[in-house]
Amino acid sequence: GKYRCSTRARLPTMLPKILVNIIMMGGSIAGRAFLDAYKQALQRAGQEGARRAVDATQRPLTATHSMTLAEAKKILGVDGKPNLAINDIYTRYQHLHAANDPTKGGGSVYLQSKIDGAKTVIEEAVKRGESL
Predict the structure, then answer these.
(1) 12, containing H or E segment
(2) In tens digits, what is the pLDDT along the chain, a chain of 132 residues?
(3) Got the DSSP string for 21-79?
(4) How far apart are CA 84 and CA 70, in angstroms?
(5) Please, are residues 61 and 67 in contact by the beta-carbon 8 Å criterion?
(6) pTM greater than 0.90
(7) Buried b / exposed e across 82-115, counting CB within 10 Å, b at 16+?
(8) Hey, CA dihedral for 69, 85, 95, 47, is it positive or negative?
(9) What pLDDT, on a 0 to 100 scale, did the predictor assign at position 85?
């Protein structure tokens, strides 16, 4: 009939719509890929931060950050206690270390590193033969 249009005749008017659809689909796929990559990067960054926090708690104090025996005993809460044994130190250390574990929520890497340092200072004092 006289109202019939061939596909070939409509192609010039359909071509911009087709191109827009192709671009939109490609943009959508690229957008999803970018979003997935971003989420993965955030997860890796969080895991790396947690690993660094744990590493920091396991690192002993260096010579530039010295702590006295008295300070170490105060940190572990055993200052002024008579007849102190090394097992008392380890018991306090384990309790305080667990209570300040940053991976279990509410903990502090800073406090946990101080607790680690205090234990190290006391262990070194015992090795040198100092009395607690």
Answers:
(1) helix 7-58
(2) 555 555 556 666 766 777 777 777 776 777 777 777 777 777 777 777 666 666 655 555 444 468 999 999 999 999 888 888 888 899 999 999 999 888 887 788 888 899 999 999 999 988 998 887
(3) HHHHHHHHHHHHHHHHHHHHHHHHHHHHHHHHHHHHHHSPP-TTS---HHHHHHHHT-T
(4) 13
(5) yes
(6) no
(7) eebeeeebeebbeebbeebbbeeeebebebbbbb
(8) positive
(9) 87
Q: How many CA atoms lie within 13 A of 55 on its CB side?
A: 6
Q: Which of 129, 71, 69, 122 is nearest to 93 (CA)?
A: 122
- CA geometry: angle 125, 69, 65, nearest 5 deg: 100
Q: Give which of 90, 96, 95 is closest to 108, Cα–Cα.
A: 96
Q: What is the rounded distance in angstroms from the CA atom of residue 89 to the CA atom of residue 34?
A: 52
DSSP conformation class of 106: S
Distance, first Cα to last Cα, the chain: 108
List CB contacts of 78: < 8 A, sequence separation 6 or more. 84, 88, 89, 92, 132
Q: Identify the H or E element spanning 93.
A: helix 86-99
